[in-house]
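Most newcomers find our protein records easier to grasp once they have seen one. Read left to right, the backbone structure tokens trace the chain's path through space. Once this layout is familiar, the rest of the handout is easier to follow. The record below serves as our worked example for the rest of this section:


***
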Amino acid sequence: MEIIKTEIPGVLIVEPTVYGDERGYFFESFNEKEFKEKTGFKVHFVQDNESKSRYGVVRGLHFQHPPYAQSKLVRVVKGEVLDVAVDIRPNSETFGKYVAVRLTAESHRQFFIPKGFAHGFAVLSDEVIFQYKCDSFYNPASEGAIAWDDPDLAIDWQLPMDKVILSEKDRSHPRLKDLGGER
């Protein structure tokens, strides 16, 4: 696997080694030992999730409050998304900054998002199947979120505004500057 650093330390693009031939392909989507050797991060995933969405869906920007904060390794197995990680660590030099990366089923690229980040994605293809690993179990009482369209973040979701589809819950999150307490 190849590890590509982004503008925010700890947020990484992971490119697995894909072995292909006339039969198809094979790749190791995660190897804990190799990941630690190449990144210095010791991460042990305990939960895998999958979602299916259609074009225009924006999910996010979600996070879990400590002590249930989650690191995530995300990937697309069908379709294409714009995946976004926003630094919400209050004392971070990159607080309020984000990294956005296109993930496609064809590229097999993955995106590692450490604890202390809000996460979301926009579906850019007709349909997407999205998978992610978490290193902490989901805890409903620890849910947190920030507005996907926070003007201070100014994220270009690469979708026309009239095509954006949101859950009722994702329509009413606070802006980052209005979040209080520990994140």
Summary: The two ends are 31 Å apart (CA to CA). The chain has one domain: 43-178. Residues 32-39 form the longest helix (8 residues). Helices lie at 32-39.
